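pipeline: protein-struct stage 2 | run 1193 | Magnesium chelatase subunit I
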Amino acid sequence: MPPADLPGTLGALRAAGHPYRTVKQELRDNLLARLRDGRPRFTGIVGYDDTVLPEVERALLAGHDMVLLGERGQGKTRLIRSLVTLLDEWTPVIPGSVLNEHPLHPVTPAALALVAEAGDDLPIGWLHRSMRYGEKLATPDTSVGDLIGDVDPIRLAQGRTLGDPETIHFGLVPRTNRGIFAVNELPDLAERIQVALLNVLEERDIQVRGYQLRLPLDLLLVASANPEDYTNRGRIITPLKDRFGAEIRTHYPTDLELELELIRQEADLVAEVPEHVLEVLARFARAVRESPSVDPRSGVSARFAIAAAETVAAAALRRAGLLAASRDRDEVLTGAPSSTAGVNKVPFLTPVARVGDAVSVTSTLRGKVEFESGEEGREIEILGHLLRTATAETFRARLAGLDLSGFTALVDDGKAIETGELVPAAELLRQVGTVPGLAKVLDRLGIGDAPSPGQAAAAVEFVLEGLHLNRRLGKDVTDSGRTRYGGRD
């Protein structure tokens, strides 16, 4: 609901000194105000501060419609939707106007007549900026009527003539008048439908079934598209490309820290995922993106790493649920010794993911990756190799220079350490006991000197896997799914 102190009539609006501004003037003024005050301009956008966002800001200040080009999962839609925050929170409208007409600037014959008749006594309404955004996902079945409008047969049946503008049912674009309209995946729009947008972008009027309606639309038009060298489904016609004032290329996060920041911001984790595991997944996503076995034109969405983190967290939660069904909750979730079964001395702790849980993502997320045609049948093998590479790189980045001989000594004389998806943290920690150097490992991994059993087990498993990948430990997977780390033969 709008604040009660806003003007309620056209006369009160004039007396308050409210100016009429176009959408592009409004965006320009509000963006400049934020630039001068040092306030954030776009929220929830990661990795574009020095590349994409300056280009977007220049386009807005210039009053240009824009098209964002980039592979899938680069945040194009998120960025477009964030533009709404640069609009005024509330704007006046003529109540009942399909085109959200400004009381000081009516455009339709009906609104002009209404303002002339009521004068300063005309009641006005207020529209929140969240209602000034329209969006259409371009699909082959999209029609001109959907975007621009069509003749309404019901109104014709009521006795209106074809020459009466009131017989027109307006489409999505004019209904977003005085707002921001977005067309997602513009190349998917049939070329004959794209032609209908030419007048919207240049002359700012619309044509419906032979009507020449001089309705000066006031909107910012933004489109998203994959680069033309990738999409085979269509293209943006040259006259339409020429009418966009700015063409802006988006990209994936440029460095590892930005990839991690994006995962932290977007992933909905149902269990604790330690930082070193998130780093493995971030490196994994970047490795997949850069792999010669993956089609570079399709890209690897940022949603790949986000879904991987959520899958790993779900694996930890599943482990906790399965183990809780057969063992006392204290032993499974808090690491209390089995002799205390039935005594709930320790509060419930969030399950903690381990690096071994990441193996599950190679099968569940392969559908998010488009491989080169010659790699058919090897998808899981390729992803598994890249995941091991990412784990080894994280191990070296996090634990390089530490003395880990205490861990290699655990498997002396033919001993082995068993871990795996259904091995409780308490069981893994009982096998390793007190390990020299574990405190430094925990410190390097950012876990601290008072870890929960789940966090300590995650650190131990990471070290064991890293030593194996660096050929300092052997590794076998048993028929029951457990992983056994031992000495190298």
